[in-house]
Design a protein that fits this description.
Largest interface: A-B, 60 and 61 residues
Number of strands of chain A: 7
Helix content of chain A: 40-55%
Number of helices of chain A: 10
Order of helices and strands of chain A: HHHEEHHEEHHHEEEHH
Distance between the termini of chain A: 25 Å
CATH superfamily of the largest domain in chain A: GAF domain
Oligomer: homodimer
Largest sheet of chain A: 5 strands, antiparallel
Strand content of chain A: 15-25%
CATH architecture of the largest domain in chain A: 2-Layer Sandwich
DNA sequence: CTGGGGCGTTGCAACTTCTGCAACGCCCAT
DNA sequence: ATGGGCGTTGCAGAAGTTGCAACGCCCCAG
């Protein structure tokens, strides 16, 4: 809608790939160097980009701080956190909390496993949307046509042999998840890692977030992990209850 | 430099305070509603803001994802991380890594204490610049006139009775830190928490990051914590060495 | 030592884009 | 019903933004 802002914002993902100098930015934006310079200057004034000692631009500190604040303001996160910690204390495994927002699912909280073998993941990182158990739950709650539209739009990277291969398989999986009210990821993202997940619902019954417990094969088998399902679901329901209670007219997410 | 972009970016910190509707955004920006709407729309297209179910705007998911990428691209972070983990294994306390950038110091990595009592802090959060041990180290390395200028510009909140009260005290502390090559924060931020910190230097000797070990009084006394200083300094030096070696012509931060 | 190329920067005039207005439609509460 | 609040749209004037060309700078090559 606004050309100037549009261009300026396009610079950010570009810099996320790595530092770039003025010429590179101008080229990739398809604008004159002087234009790129002015945009970068404005971004710089707001701390969104930073100029390294070699004159190249990087993403700036304020961007990071802003994102931090953004996450700290999420009400579900606040409510869920103590429950996640308690669950971690009970089972010892890695616990995640994720939300869906405009075609992306991302982790907004995490409690690390107490076992020495830990899985890689990071708060703020978009999750593997086609395979993650939490993603399945969040997407399964969308209206039918939205699921269809999204499923067709996605890529289906074959992380492992068990990854969801195509839109049809994905929609089928979503239907199943929707039906049963919980989800799993058994080696679909990383060969040796399994997850069980449960949905967190708002007062209106819509899924507002999802939580999961993940553990590598070397610690517990998939079957053993599945025995935790009742506990995970109970925790999710507790969070749902508290969230619905406290949330009066506040927005989702 | 660019009015439109400037206005658009001003919306972000505003939304970081909490969700806001169109009218509020327009008011605080001092522009017409229709203008604010167009700016918000552009931000929305880029995923920087998100529209909640109650129509109010929040910061968006892409912002969080971008910030995540920004941090993952920091080379010092990559190099330092395993060292921080090892240090944590040796002493058990919380370990932080921080960098300075344009009048701000922020944590870019953290390894949690293994003791039950943990301190609050969060990656991406700007640190209490006038009292934190890592901040002292990073600022102490600036040129004299920069230190002066910055010191005068800062606020000096009295978190505790031992907080740095004013520019003079701060500059004096920086001089001392610069001299001795390490820093402490003994209850200057939170009454019961102490830190010891050491600088990480690039090939040219400039301080590029700082790391610290923090622990509450209830776990170890300040004196006991200070006995860790040699270990902390050695770790920082190891990181410096590795960073200087690997870094050929790359930028700071 | 000198010349050339690369890169960031600036002033300017033309023009594209953005702005604020006013009016409309919508929903909720009175 | 009806008024107020809020988001949304089309439009013409105003204003900001654009690309150009030229400059200065630094570094490398001749």
């Amino acid at each position: 809608m606004s050309q100037t802002v549009d261009r300026a914002l396009s610079i950010l993902p570009l810099l996320a790939e790595g530092p770039a100098d003025l010429g590179q930015v101008a080229d990739r934006l398809g604008v004159h160097k002087s234009t790129a310079l002015r945009l970068l200057r404005t971004l710089h004034e707001h701390g969104m980009v930073y100029r390294q000692s070699d004159q190249r631009y990087r993403l700036g500190a304020r961007l990071i701080a802003l994102a931090q604040e953004a996450m700290e303001n999420l009400d579900i996160r606040e409510i869920a956190h103590p429950h996640l910690v308690r669950l971690n204390e009970q089972c010892g495994h890695t616990v995640h909390l994720a939300v869906y927002e405009e075609d992306e699912v991302l982790y907004i909280d995490k409690v690390e496993s107490r076992y020495p073998v830990r899985m890689y993941s990071r708060i703020g990182k978009p999750v593997a949307i086609t395979v993650a158990a939490v993603a399945k739950l969040l997407l399964a709650d969308l209206a039918e046509h939205e699921r269809r539209a999204l499923a067709d739009k996605l890529d289906y990277p074959m992380y492992t042999a068990r990854s969801t291969p195509n839109p049809e398989a994905f929609l089928k999986e979503l239907a199943k998840v929707r039906e049963q009210g919980w989800a799993t990821d058994l080696g679909g993202h990383e060969e040796s890692i399994n997850c069980v997940a449960a949905p967190i619902r708002g007062a209106d019954g819509r899924v507002v977030a999802a939580m999961s417990v993940s553990a590598p094969n070397v610690v517990v088998t998939a079957d053993e992990l599945l025995t935790l399902l009742p506990l995970v679901r109970r925790t999710a329901d507790d969070i749902s209850g508290e969230y619905s209670g406290r949330t009066s007219a506040k927005g989702t997410v």
